[in-house]
Amino acid sequence: MSNVEKYNKAFVEALEITADLLNEKLTYQSIENWDSVGHMSLVAELEDSFDIMMETDDIIDFSSYEKGKEILKKYGIEI
Amino acid sequence: METSFYNGLERYRAQTAVVDDTGVTLTYEDLENYAKKIGELLPQRSLAFCYCENTAGSLCSYIGCLYNSVVVLLLNRSIDKELNQELMNRYKPSFIFAPVEDRDIYSDYSDMYTEHGYMLLERGNKTSICLHDELALLLTTSGSTGSPKLVKQSFSNIQSNAQAIAEYLELDGEERPITTLPMNYTYGLSIINSHLQVGATICMTTKGILQKEFWDFFRQQQATSFGGVPYTYEMLKKLRFFGMKLPSLRTMTQAGGKLTPKLHKEFAQYAKEQGKRFVVMYGQTEATARMAYLPYEKSLDKYGSMGIAIPGGKFELIDVDGKIITASDTVGELVYYGPNVTLGYAEGLEDLKIGDERKGKLITGDMAKRDEDGYYYIVGRKKRFLKIFGNRVNLDECERMLHTEFVQNECACGGVDDKLCIYYTGSSMRGQSSISHDFDTEKGEEIGKKMEQFLSHKTGLHPSAFVSMQVEEIPKNDAGKILYKELPAIG
């Protein structure tokens, strides 16, 4: 699975949404399921899929689908 | 009249009462001036709804009501539309306080006054109503399951609880609590009340602990304390909170459900090492807010305990025959006595006329035991509800909602805190009338998923809190009562 596939799968599974919602409009709290609970599941999914441990500052800065791609770069993951 | 947190604002004049993340800062004098303005506009003993968010405008509206003896129902700004409509129909409030951005929602109300981003609206044809003299405030019981049942709190309920909390937490004017809970939620509100009592500064933010802006505001405002439900503490742990540098933080409180003993111990340990205080507490909306607290010095020795009764309160444990249990380590139903025991429930306008129905005694519905040193431990619940992310979710109500929506399946709800399990039968066992979900075209698993989504939507809680399991049949006794203990455990 490519990085972008893994990244998208994490969103779909953690937030229980369909893939068509994965775009620049998807931000924290923009949909019901991306609340605090969804956020923690998303972080857990991403950490599992990419085998990383995200830092506090990155977890709280992970405010959108696009922003997340930028953050993962820090961990050497190109989406 | 006795001085209280809402009418004694002049005590703290120039001190800052509230600072919010939109840049509004108000002194106690500003708060009082706003309250006086409201007094010119609203008649005493009228009924208002306030749609809350954690902003200075929302706080002003609430204090403005209490100051002028206007009875106010506090609701979340993002309340479910259907529930809101139901409450509107039942109570027909003469006045509404809401954020200016929500003007369109209340199109049948006209403008009266706007300040600090909150507008005061008025109903065209006002219903004349009779409100009991002691009634001060209305709060929802379980908000999340969409129940329109309200808790009636008196002036002396909220004042006595604010005072007791300020006393056992040793609060003073130097405190700067930051909001982490909605102000229409009794625990969030009790933090506000108890701090206004001592002239402290409330730092209000609409952001949450998973947002960078929250922590920027926290540091900028040098916040000294926050509160959290069990789920807040689970998130903080995952956020690796123990590694964060927060020198201004002095106190963390916890309520809204039982923290796992493991997490209780970890936070107690952290607090001890860092010279901070971690205070586990216990309460219910029916007791205004707080009934018990575990003194921070004991948080490590007595982890897993919810502590002792607050100043002015008292507990008893009652056995199945209604007798008082005197022995230690014996489980019984927890009963609380105190001036913060609320007046009773309201299910409609008529109920607002009725005075105190509980006379200072609250049967909590929680099962507890007391150790030989007098510390209480919650061991379970008598009533059928779960706490999900700090919200009370009534299982019987969930069953009823499923029953109406999924007529083809039999359902039962169970589970543990933060994980509600829907048990359902696969075959069509109930009549053929008004089929809203055609079972033939769907596999059992899909039905389960739909039920999870349905409850998640109805309660406004994240779908990960719901699981479903198909069972051969729902076990029942001869009288047709569901035998919950015979349902398989989840996980």
Can you put this structure into words, describing what you see?
The complex is a heterodimer of chains A (79) and B (491). Chain A has 4 helices and no strands. Chain A is mostly helical and 79 residues long. Chain A is globular. The N and C termini of chain A lie close together (12 Å). Chain B is of the alpha/beta class. Helix content of chain B is 25%, strand content 26%. Chain B has 10 helices and 25 strands. Chain B has helices at 28-41, 56-67, 81-91, 155-168, 186-197, 212-220, 230-238, 261-274, 395-405, 444-459; strands at 16-20, 25-27, 47-52, 71-76, 95-99, 109-115, 118-123, 135-140, 150-154, 202-204, 225-228, 251-254, 277-283, 290-293, 308-309, 314-318, 332-337, 344-346, 361-370, 376-381, 385-388, 391-394, 411-416, 419-425, 466-471. Chain B has an 8-stranded mixed sheet with strand order 6-7-5-3-4-8-9-18. In chain B, helix 2 links the parallel strand 3 (47-52) and strand 4.
In short:
The complex is a heterodimer of chains A (79) and B (491). By secondary structure, chain A is mainly alpha-helical. Chain A contains four helices and no strands.
List the helices and strands and how they pair.
The complex is a heterodimer of chains A (79) and B (491).
Chain A: H1 3-15, H2 36-50, H3 56-61, H4 65-73
Helix pairs in contact in A: 1-2
Chain B: E1 16-20, E2 25-27, H1 28-41, E3 47-52, H2 56-67, E4 71-76, H3 81-91, E5 95-99, E6 109-115, E7 118-123, E8 135-140, E9 150-154, H4 155-168, H5 186-197, E10 202-204, H6 212-220, E11 225-228, H7 230-238, E12 251-254, H8 261-274, E13 277-283, E14 290-293, E15 308-309, E16 314-318, E17 332-337, E18 344-346, E19 361-370, E20 376-381, E21 385-388, E22 391-394, H9 395-405, E23 411-416, E24 419-425, H10 444-459, E25 466-471
Parallel strand pairs in B: 1-10, 3-4, 3-5, 4-8, 11-12, 12-13, 24-25
Antiparallel strand pairs in B: 1-2, 5-7, 6-7, 8-9, 9-18, 13-14, 14-15, 16-17, 17-19, 19-20, 21-22, 23-24
Helix pairs in contact in B: 1-2, 4-5
